[in-house]
Amino acid sequence: MSINYNERIPNNVDLGQNKQLQRALEHWQPKYQDWWREMGPVNSDGYDVYLRTAVSVDSKGWAHFDYVKMPDYRWGIFLTPPEQDRLISFGSHKGQAAWNEVPGEYRSTLRRIIVTQGDTEPASVEQQRFLGQNCPSLYDLRNLYQVNVEEGRHLWAMVYLLHAYFGRDGREEGEALLERRSGDPDKPRILGAFNEKTPDWLSFFMFTFLTDRDGKYQLAALAESGFDPLSRSTKFMLTEEAHHLFVGETGIGRIIQRTCEVMKEHKTEDADKLRALGVIDLPALQRYLNFHFSVTLDLYGSEVSSNASSFYSMGLKGRFEETKINDDHRLANVEYPVLEPIGDSLVEKHVNAAMALNERLRDDYIKDCQAGVDRWNKIIEKAGFTTRLRLPHKGFHRRIGTFAESKISPDGRIVSEAEWTHKETEWLPTVADHQYVQAIQGRVTEPGKYANFIAPPARGIDNKPHSFEYVRFN
Ligand SMILES: [Fe+2]
Ligand SMILES: [Fe+2]
User: Fold this and answer.
1) Domains along the chain?
2) 13 C-alpha vs ligand 1 centroid, how far in Å?
3) pLDDT above 60: residue 305
């Protein structure tokens, strides 16, 4: 199937018939292009990148591969097709027809939900801006760029909703999404984890494994929304998100595999010796995992939250796989357990399930992360080593919610300030870790070659051979 890359704003929302929306988006598009040039991947405008592009939204049609210059990527607006007679499946409107217009009384709440999701998309592109300069291979560089263009398109998806359904306020929010900057103290991105740095490829893979997975769970909860355009936008975004998680999981898996090969070959697990051999020791990997996991857990918000409860009862944001859950989907008389530090122990409390929706989504997310960590551990086990990676306790290193005031160890004990200070360098990445990981980053651009700290992937993208030229620099 061929693509018309010149079509100004590709879409399946009948943009041609909606002059007002067209004007709004055409006004926004040049500002978006400016933002991409200023904050997107550095020095990449002229590169031909072997990218996957959405052609249509049906299951076969959306993954079309070809060489594309990223500024010409087919940014556009794609919603999954409407489900006939869709009903709202939870909250106080359960059983009513899903909305195709914004319910007036929920307008500002819904706008805030869309803006908060939308803000994360350009933020991650900004965080990853410089990584291309130190790519461990062409294969990885292409994957980075694929993630970047899709996050850009996710911004489009949210801006479309703002423009199409929120009038002038929506247009202003659309502009503001291009004005905030990740990590900028004066105009930061809305959520904490999206203001952290992603200075090296270990951080990038942890980010895509952990923080993009938060994206998956947030999008899945929004895909349940009673506001049908939001549901359909986020459903399509989820199909793209799966690749981001794949990049993260296999990226870390390949680092682990390479480390294990060197441990075997040199019969050593000593961190200093491994560093002298140019690979990343497993304890350092564990510390990076601890850091990225804990900052991502904060994205779910407080364990007990009246906001989350309102979003649910309004029918705006559901639970993960809402329709597969066997309860009344209103939650007035349902309970959910949350942990609370009391004295020197963590005590389980049962609270109203609607108030604990953030915690429930976080727990669903943790299970999904654990499955990935188990797969990483299989690589270590297969290599014959007994070290295992572990997700830290959910209270570890948290800044938001019930654990924020306590010091919790990775194994889930409340510890003294003194123990925390003593152990922090075992639990979180140290200055030396960062320096070392950054020092071994290099730019590998010869087709089929990989940086020393990472193994080649099991197979190529779109079944291409190892030596495939995923990026042409021209
Ligand atoms: Fe995204
Ligand atoms: Fe993503």
Assistant:
1) 15-472 (1.10.620.20)
2) 20
3) yes
